[in-house]
C-alpha cells in the first residue's frame, strides 16, 4: 500500500548558497533517497543556480526552478508549491539550504504525515528539540517570540515560526496563496494558523536546529518588529472572534433556559 510520503518533494530555496547547496543536496539524497528535490534559485550572483543545474544534470531526483530576481523566501516557496502541485506530489517539504535543517531528521516529519498528520512542523521548542550554536540572546528572542505567538493565536503550537515542514497537498490546495502575509518571514506562522483554523491535523516533532556554518543569515532586524505587529493584529481578531462566538452560545443558552422556565410556569 502506497504512503503519502512515497510522493514527496523537498523544496530548497537558494540565494548565494554556492558552497552549501552541494552539501545539503548530498545529505538529502543520502538520508532519504526516495524523495525528489526542487532547488528554487533567485538568480544568485555567486553561481548557485548554475551549480544546481549541474547537480540536476547528474541526478534525476534533482530539479531546478530559476526565478528572475531576489523575490524573497515566501515567493520562492509559493513558486515551489505551485511547481510541485502541478506534478502531483502528495507531500511538499520546506528545507533551508544552509544546513540548519538536518535532512537526517526528515523521516521524523514524513512518519507523522504517514500516520495521518496534514502539516508537520520540525520544532525547536518541544521536548527533545534543541538549537545549536545560537547566541543566548537570539535563542531568548526566538523562544519568547514563539511563546507570545502561541498565546496570542491560541493555536496550541510551540514553534510556529519554524521553517522545517512537511505539508500534505490538500493543505496547500485549501489555502489562498495571495492571502499569506509577507511581513518578514511571518508567512510561516500565517500558514500554520490558517491550517489550524481550517481544521487540518497540525503536529510538531522535535528537531535539532543548527546555525549555519557557511555564509550569512538572510534575516534582518525588521523581522521581529514586522512579525510581532502582524501577530498582534491576528491575535486581536482571534480573541474578538472567540468573544463573538461565546456571546452567541450564551444567547442560545439563555433562550433555552427562558423557554424551559415558561414551560414550567404553564404547567403550574
TrEMBL record:
Family: Belongs to the glycosyltransferase 2 family.
Organism: Corynebacterium suedekumii
Keyword Glycosyltransferase belongs to the record: yes
Protein known as: Polyprenol monophosphomannose synthase
Keywords: Glycosyltransferase, Transferase
Keyword Transcription regulation: no
Transmembrane segments: none
InterPro entries reported in the protein's UniProt record: DPM1-like (IPR039528), Glyco_trans_2-like (IPR001173), Nucleotide-diphossugar_trans (IPR029044)
Glycosyltransferase 2-like domain location: 10-174
Amino acid at each position: 500500500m502506497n504512503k503519502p510520503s512515497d510522493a514527496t518533494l523537498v523544496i530548497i530555496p537558494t540565494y548565494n548558497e554556492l558552497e552549501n547547496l552541494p552539501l545539503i543536496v548530498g545529505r538529502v539524497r543520502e538520508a532519504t533517497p526516495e524523495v525528489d528535490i526542487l532547488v528554487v534559485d533567485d538568480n544568485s550572483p555567486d553561481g548557485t543556480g548554475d551549480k544546481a543545474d549541474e547537480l540536476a544534470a547528474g541526478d534525476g531526483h534533482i530539479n531546478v526552478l530559476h526565478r528572475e530576481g531576489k523575490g524573497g523566501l515566501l515567493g520562492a516557496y509559493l513558486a515551489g508549491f505551485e511547481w510541485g502541485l502541478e506534478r502531483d506530489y502528495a507531500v511538499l517539504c520546506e528545507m533551508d539550504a544552509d544546513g540548519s535543517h538536518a535532512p537526517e531528521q526528515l523521516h521524523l516529519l514524513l512518519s507523522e504525515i504517514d500516520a495521518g498528520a496534514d502539516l508537520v512542523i520540525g520544532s525547536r521548542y518541544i521536548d527533545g528539540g534543541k538549537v545549536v550554536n545560537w547566541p543566548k540572546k537570539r535563542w531568548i528572542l526566538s523562544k519568547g517570540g514563539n511563546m507570545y505567538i502561541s498565546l496570542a493565536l491560541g493555536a496550541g503550537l510551540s514553534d510556529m515560526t519554524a521553517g522545517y515542514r512537511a505539508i500534505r497537498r490538500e493543505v496547500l490546495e485549501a489555502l489562498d496563496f495571495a492571502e499569506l502575509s509577507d511581513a518578514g518571514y511571518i508567512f510561516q506562522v500565517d500558514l500554520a494558523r490558517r491550517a489550524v483554523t481550517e481544521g487540518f491535523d497540525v503536529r510538531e516533532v522535535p528537531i535539532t536546529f543548527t546555525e549555519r556554518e557557511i555564509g550569512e543569515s538572510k534575516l534582518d532586524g525588521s523581522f521581529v518588529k514586522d512579525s510581532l505587529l502582524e501577530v498582534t493584529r491576528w491575535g486581536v481578531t482571534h480573541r474578538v472572534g472567540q468573544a463573538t462566538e461565546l456571546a452567541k452560545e450564551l444567547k442560545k443558552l439563555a433562550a433555552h433556559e427562558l423557554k424551559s422556565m415558561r414551560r414550567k410556569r404553564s404547567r403550574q
